[in-house]
Amino acid sequence: MPSHLDGHRKRLRERFQKNGLRGFAEHEILELLLTLCIPRKDVKNLSKCLLEKFGNIRNVLDAEPHLLKRIKGLGDASVTHLALIKAFTIYYLQQETEKTCVFNNNEALIKFWQMRLGPLKHEVFEVAYLDSSYRLVNDGIERLEEGSIDRTAVYPRKVLTSAMLHDASHIVIAHNHPSGNPSPSQADFQLTQAIQYAGTILSIRLLDHIIIAKDEFYSFRQSGFLS
Question: Do residues 172 and 106 make contact, with C-beta atoms less than 8 angstroms apart?
Fold first, then answer.
């Protein structure tokens, strides 16, 4: 005999199949995700508990595995499932970026980096390598440096050497500010100027330098520092 739980899950799936996520409360979206990895348990209360603890679905997906495992009802399989959802989302955003001409619109690239770098607790520095049509080359996003909670050492020579190895005509550089404030430091301005100058000599154009915080970003190009 079908259980009340089976009927509830079926109704959630049918609503999604008919209208997507339109009309879903946030706890229902998370509940729908959890039904895929927790097949024999009512996960409504678990979903509400996660949102109460972390605030929203994005924070749930960004949470460290050891923090998620402290929530009663989540085990290795469900935590891995949530990590996979985030990884698939990042992969999807990267593929979307690969189809986009970054010269006119780098929104997809910013969304990718916000998802990938925003939650990190230490600074990293990444480069997007673009061809002459302003599209990502194959395997066109590379992490060049990792640092501490508030700084990472970046050398323009390494950035430009790597760009030449990727046969890039243009580059976009990005790093994160774990503090949550994307405002550039004096060192960020100096690095941008150094890479721009060295790139001009090598005919590799620096299109933008993007600083990522969890919920904000700063674009040197949008600010008028790069054109």
Answer: yes
* Gap between the Cα atoms of 198 and 156, Å rounded: 7
Taking the C-alpha atoms of residue 72 and residue 14, their distance in angstroms, rounded to an integer, is 28
Nearest to 58 by CA among 217, 215, 218: 215
Residue 64 falls inside a structural domain: yes
Residue 169: strand pairing partners: none
Domain presence at residue 226 = no
**Is pLDDT at 72 greater than 70 in this prediction?**
yes
What amino acid occupies position 164?
Answer: M
Name the helix (H) or strand (E) containing 210. Answer: strand 205-212
Query: pTM of the prediction?
Result: 0.77
Number of domains in the chain: 2
Our measurement of the distance from residue 224's CA atom to the centroid of its chain's CA atoms, rounded to an integer in Å, reads 25
Asked if 123 and 203 sit in the same domain, the reply is: yes
Same domain, 128 and 157: yes
Residue 193, both tokens: 């100027």
Q: In this structure, are 36 and 108 located in the same domain?
A: no
Confidence class for position 107, pLDDT limits 50, 70, 90: confident
Q: Is residue 139 part of a domain?
A: yes
Q: Residue 2: is its pLDDT beyond 50?
A: no
- Domain limits for position 41: 4-90
CB 153 within 8 A of CB 147: yes
CA–CA separation, 137 and 80 (whole Å):
30
Tell me: pLDDT of 176 over 90: yes
